[in-house]
């Protein structure tokens, strides 16, 4: 469990509000800060996937309140790497779209490269893989990659994977996992229908981007799944807040709220929205009957402090211990926050590992 004191939390959220939503950071929070406190913020920002966002917040402060030159240089250096990786992703995504379009295959870009468009500086939104959905042409897409000499792996039934210029691509057969339970099945069916309402991608020529109503359901399902299993990052809260701010006006509110109720995601959606409003200062187009104030605080602290221990132990026994420890520690999430069932999720994981034992060791970006 990572420890983060109250004043450090206030500083991080102040930097995020300034960077992402144009708020003026409370200068009193940053007066007479010793370098070790700036280093703590830097470390937390790195771990939470918001390094570039917080750097933008730092630059909004008067120079006298900014950290020392050594920390600023370190920050700027790593932000430049984030920017360069984003440009590499854009280049690879563009090449993918051109290749598939030559065979009349439409490419819908999910997650990172589409989420980036919600932000004032898209290149500052960190991501790893490029996720695509080929609008029903999953197998044709895989075959095109193979014919061009690419190696396509299909270790997980939801998507295949291949690498282009060092960037991992996930080609989705299913948009979300439809087999884990009725929630997953319902959401995947809704997203398949909504995929036909996709819009033009703003930065990848010829690509599609999910509609606002699609993204409202998809972002919540994707992050709720990860939250229950291993927690999420502040980046996920930023994604939700930036999405609501940039695209909230385009959401079909009635349909969205109905899907959240039908899927069981309404409580999780209310919690994420409460955190985005309270700590990032946004105004939400989605209104909920309850904000789950106390539970929202617990979720916030979990996001800030939970350590999944990935890579902490090596070998079969160590990895197995980590898996068990994490599952036990996440039981409350299933009971109080997400629509999935605790034992059902465990049984689904066990079946998956029995079918593919090496998956337990697969590292995630």
What do these coordinates show?
This protein is α+β, with helices and mostly antiparallel strands and 365 residues long. Among the domains are: 6-67, no CATH class; 94-210, Beta Polymerase, domain 2 (2-Layer Sandwich); 315-361, no CATH class. Helix content is 56%, strand content 7%. It contains 15 helices and seven strands. The protein has helices at 6-21, 35-47, 51-59, 69-101, 112-115, 138-147, 182-194, 212-230, 234-247, 253-263, 266-280, 293-305, 315-329, 331-336, 342-355; strands at residues 108-110, 130-133, 153-156, 159-164, 167-172, 199-200, 208-209. The strands form two sheets. A five-stranded mixed β-sheet has the order 1-2-5-4-3. A hairpin with a 2-residue loop joins strand 4 (159-164) and strand 5 (167-172). Helix 1 crosses helix 3. It starts with 5 loop residues before the first helix and ends in a 10-residue tail after the last helix. The model has no long low-confidence stretch (mean pLDDT 91).
Provide keyphrases for this structure:
single chain, 365 residues, Beta Polymerase, domain 2, five-stranded mixed β-sheet, 7 strands, globular
Could you give a quick summary of the protein structure above?
With about 375 residues, the chain is an alpha+beta fold. Helices cover about 55% and strands about 5% of the residues. It has helices spanning about 5-20, 35-45, 50-60, 70-100, 110-115, 140-145, 180-195, 210-230, 235-245, 255-265, 265-280, 295-305, 315-330, 330-335, 340-355; strands at about 110, 130-135, 155, 160-165, 165-170, 200, 210.
């Amino acid at each position: 469990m990572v420890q983060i004191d109250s004043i450090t939390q206030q500083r991080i959220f102040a930097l995020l509000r300034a960077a992402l939503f144009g708020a003026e950071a409370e200068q009193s929070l940053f007066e007479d800060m010793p370098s070790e406190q700036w280093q703590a913020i830097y470390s937390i920002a790195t771990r939470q996937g918001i390094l570039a966002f917080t750097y933008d917040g730092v630059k909004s402060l008067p120079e006298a309140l900014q950290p020392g030159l050594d920390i600023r240089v370190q920050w700027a250096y790593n932000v430049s790497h984030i920017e360069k990786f984003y440009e590499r992703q854009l280049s690879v995504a563009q090449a993918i779209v051109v290749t598939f379009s030559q065979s009349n295959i439409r490419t819908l870009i999910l997650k990172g490269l589409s989420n980036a468009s919600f932000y004032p500086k898209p290149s500052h939104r960190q991501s790893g893989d490029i996720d695509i959905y080929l609008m029903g042409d999953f197998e044709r897409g895989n075959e095109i990659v193979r014919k061009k000499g690419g190696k396509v792996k299909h270790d997980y039934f939801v998507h295949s994977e291949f690498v282009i210029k060092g960037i991992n691509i996930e080609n989705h057969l299913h948009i979300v996992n439809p087999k884990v339970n009725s929630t997953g099945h319902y959401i995947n069916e809704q997203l398949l229908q909504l995929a036909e309402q996709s819009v033009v991608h703003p930065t990848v020529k010829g690509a599609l981007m999910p509609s606002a109503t699609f993204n409202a359901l998809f972002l919540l399902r994707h992050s709720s799944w990860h939250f229950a299993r291993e927690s999420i990052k502040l980046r996920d809260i930023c994604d939700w807040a930036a999405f609501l701010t940039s695209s909230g006006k385009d959401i079909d509110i009635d349909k969205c709220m109905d899907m959240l109720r039908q899927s069981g995601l309404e409580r999780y959606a209310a919690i994420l929205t409460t955190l985005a409003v309270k700590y990032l200062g946004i105004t939400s187009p989605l209104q909920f009957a309850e904000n789950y104030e106390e539970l929202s605080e617990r979720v916030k602290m979990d996001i800030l402090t939970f350590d999944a221990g990935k890579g902490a132990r090596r070998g079969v026994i160590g990895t197995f211990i980590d898996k068990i420890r994490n599952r036990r520690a996440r039981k409350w999430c299933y009971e109080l926050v997400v629509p999935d069932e605790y034992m059902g999720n465990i049984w689904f994981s066990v079946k998956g590992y029995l079918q593919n034992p090496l998956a337990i060791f697969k590292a995630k970006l």
